Amino acid sequence: MGKLTIGCFSSLVGSMNLDFAVKLSAAALEKGHTVDLWVSGNATMLSIKDQRAFKDYSSLEKPLKELMGKGLTVTACEACAEARGYHKDNTMEGFKRHSMDWYLASAFDADRVLHIGGE
Amino acid sequence: MATTKLGFIVQRPPYKSENPKLALTHAIASQSVEIYLKDGDLVTADVAFVGDGVLNCLKNQKAMDIYALSSTESHLKNCLLLDLNVYVCKEDLGKLGLSENDIVMDAEEFGADMKVNVVPFDEISKMMEGMNHLLFF
Fold this sequence. Notes:
The complex is a heterodimer. Chain A is of the alpha/beta class. Chain A has one domain (about 5-110): Hypothetical Protein Ychn, Chain: A (3-Layer(aba) Sandwich), CATH 3.40.1260. Chain A is about 30% helix and about 20% strand. Chain A contains 4 helices and 5 strands. A 5-stranded parallel sheet of chain A has the order 4-3-2-1-5, with helices on both faces. Chain A is globular and about 35 Å long. Chain A starts with a strand and ends with a strand. The radius of gyration of chain B is 15 Å and the shape is globular. Chain B starts with a strand and ends with a strand. Chains A and B meet through α4 and β5 of A and α1 and β5 of B.
């Protein structure tokens, strides 16, 4: 089995890229692969806990928690999050926060890196 | 001991989105990645500006004066200071009516030895073929 590193830089609301990244993570985990999901820039919005789920806006907290329970590692860029007022105390449980070198370290031994740029 | 080569390809113009700056800050992060790796393992970052992305390299950016933000120019100079290979597509500069005289070519005032490589796209293409992973911004 391989290791997939996914970097996503698009916002949760206003783009479907994070929806795709989370669905792809689920499919890869289902096949037995290891998945690291890195969110940076506007994508750090994914890390905020207790977002209200409306039917008109993407809401990924529930599937994300399920995937973390199956071994998905999700990490947010700490500087990008702090710049947007997303602090540690309103970060979803299990969501890691690191500096950008974490993403590069994950890419180091990844079999594939899928980088999904921002808006 | 192993080395993973990452290619950061910047296609978007500066200040319209956060992408180019994130490309450069992530590339710069290659300098501290060893804290996560075994001794001797390395991640290298090469940066290439193509398409409208070459506009990130323009000299005398006024981001600090106008937006109170560090400029993409200063990030580019930091890349040179940290000895990253930086490539700029010659053809794309020409399409925008620009030349080497219009862009940052070195960062001597930062103490950098490295210089920007203005090269035909063929050379950037060869660089990309030599990378383990490509990240498009």
